[in-house]
Model the fold of this input.
Amino acid sequence: SLLLSQSFSRLLSVYKKFMQSIDSLGHLKRFITILIVLHLLIGVIISPILTTDFKRNLFYGNAFWEHGFKVYDMKPRDIDPDYNIVDPVSGLLSYPNTTYDYPTIQLLFWAGMSLFPFSNIMAKWTLSLFDFINFFLMFFYLKRRGIKDQENETTLSTHEKVFIFSYLLFSIPFSAMEGQSTSVTIFFLILPIFLHKDHPIPVSYTHLR
Done:
């Protein structure tokens, strides 16, 4: 409980520093808070209504601890004869004769998520956490490249603000509702761009030779 408390305190500290750094956005800070709360609440309240990827990923993630990488050769009913994940759109059993075909790193991610209590909630919150991190990375990257105002402070253009806030808004159906791992993929796309801020990535790699 002490470790959890310390982790929460650190996250709260990072959040406060972030809020202090976006004073130029004024009332939009409230909008950020509302979107974060929506992510967390929807992750608890609403189950996936269009896809079964989230439930199937957790199903195979949990099966990994018993069967290891053999799950790639196993159909759902080979793992559990009572497999009952139903497609919410068609009402039919979801991929009963299909083996798991996502990359290994994704299987390991869902295997880790399956270890948490209330794994269906914790997994969605983790995906939303990646959305928050993506939002922060985009914000600081654009702010760093922004235009200086009359007080010599860097500001974001209206289009940039609309872009990053739209991301946080439209990621709700993907992460908080459907439990898609899109936010993790986007994170690994944004991170190198954020880190290689001074030179294009190919130029940066030439310095390593």
About this structure: Residues 200-209 have pLDDT under 50 and may be disordered. Strands lie at 147-148, 154-155.
